[in-house]
Amino acid sequence: MTSRIVVSAVCVFSRDGRLLTVRKRGTERFMHPGGKPEPGETAAEAASRELAEEVGIDVAPQELDYVGFWIARAANEAGTEIEATVFTAPGVHDPAGIRASAEIAELRWLDPEAELPQDLAPLLTDHVLPALVAARNATQ
């Protein structure tokens, strides 16, 4: 039987269009900043809180832009799925001003349209990146 975890995640972009990914301590896969909501939190409130805790970016929940909702295989828990609500942080962010905090062991910026590394979370590769690329192509 598969268990399911509810999470919120946030896409953060640099001025040159690279996407921020993070690797949590004790894991091997890179993913978006984000995590599980606390009791009573909305998906956007959880995303806002996690973004501040994990990488030091303060964005009010109402300023986050909704990207989508997906169910995907969990990156670091065998036999588990995640139910993810994904947002985009407004504006662009300077990589020099972002720091790994809380349970984040490593930060990495990637080009969403370049060849992808093999150590990305399934939510990112199977759902979010295709949605971001499609949205970018639709506006060009």
Concise summary:
The protein is α+β, with helices and mostly antiparallel strands. The chain has 2 helices and 7 strands; from the N terminus they run ββββαβββα. Strands 4-1-6-5 form a 4-stranded mixed sheet, with helices on both faces.
How does this structure look, described?
The chain is an alpha+beta fold and 140 residues long. 22% of the residues lie in helices and 31% in strands. It contains two helices and seven strands. Strands 4-1-6-5 form a four-stranded mixed β-sheet, sandwiched between helices. It has a three-stranded antiparallel β-sheet with strand order 3-2-7, with no helix packed on it. A hairpin with a 5-residue loop joins strand 2 and strand 3. It is globular and about 40 Å long.
Topology:
Elements lengths: L2 E9 L7 E6 L5 E2 L2 E2 L7 H13 L9 E9 L6 E9 L15 E7 L11 H18 L1
Parallel strand pairs: 1-6
Antiparallel strand pairs: 1-4, 2-3, 2-7, 5-6
How many distinct helices?
A: 2
Distance between termini? 43 Å
Q: Label the overall shape.
A: globular
- Roughly what is the average pLDDT, rounded to an integer? 93
Portion in helices: 10-25%
Quickly give the structural class. Answer: alpha+beta
Summarize the helix and strand pattern as letters: EEEEHEEEH
The value of Rg in angstroms is 14 Å
Major sheet strand order:
4-1-6-5
Low-confidence stretches: none
Beta strand count: 7
Question: How large a portion of the residues is in β-strands, by DSSP E?
Answer: 25-35%
Largest sheet: 4 strands, mixed
